[in-house]
Amino acid sequence: MAWREEVAKHPPRRFRGEAYWASPLPAFGDPSAQLIIVGLAPAAHGGNRTGRLFTGDESGNFLFRALHAAGLANRPASVRVGDGLELNGALLTAAARCAPPDNRPLPEEFANCREYLLRELALVPGPKVVVALGALAFEASLAALAASGAALPRPKPKFAHGASCTVGGHRLYCAYHPSQQNTFTGKLTQPMLRQVLRRAREEAKSL
């Protein structure tokens, strides 16, 4: 919390003069959706600045282009709160709700925020389709599903882009996180992410 607020007090030159959100971020999208997309945490000068997950940074630009192409967003860009962006049949959330140092939340931060993810999973009765963006979000999603009463398969599923598994009736998909480290190097491309999102969308429609 202290670091989240400190970075807002000392923004980079390109954001000087802007009022930062500098608070925990809520989920964004359709609360009645059976498709839940789980990211890692707000970016220090993205969501922590704008007040919306995956908004105001390159990771968000990449993600929303894919969401729009997959039919899950009405626009290909997320600029700011109030820009008219809507998600179609999806809820976008995160494993941790505050911007962490080095974009890597501590185990206790994941544990502290798990209750929010649990509440979101409980919004819609019945099975869910979950897309985890990155290995850490995948582990957090597994932990939340287990805490909600779902039985984890044995052996424990491992993260791999494009992989999926069934967890207590829910379906969990894996995708690389749309970080610049992944997208600039070509580890994650738009076709790769769109394919996972489309598969998840179609499965959610069939529930």
Question: Briefly, what is this?
Answer:
The chain has 207 residues and is of the alpha/beta class. It contains 7 helices and 6 strands.
What does this structure look like?
The structure is a single chain. The protein is α/β, with parallel strands linked by helices. It has one domain (2-205): Uracil-DNA glycosylase-like domain (Uracil-DNA Glycosylase, subunit E, 3-Layer(aba) Sandwich). It contains seven helices and six strands, in the order αββααβαβαββαα. A six-stranded mixed sheet has the order 1-3-2-4-6-5, with helices on both faces. α3 crosses α7 (190-205).
Class computed from helices, strands and strand pairing: alpha/beta
Contiguous runs where pLDDT drops below 50 for at least 5 residues: none
Overall shape: globular
Number of domains: 1
Order of helices and strands: HEEHHEHEHEEHH
Strand order of the largest sheet: 1-3-2-4-6-5
* Rg calc: 16 Å
β content, as a range? 5-15%
| CATH architecture descriptor | 3-Layer(aba) Sandwich
Task: Kindly report the CATH topology.
Answer: Uracil-DNA Glycosylase, subunit E
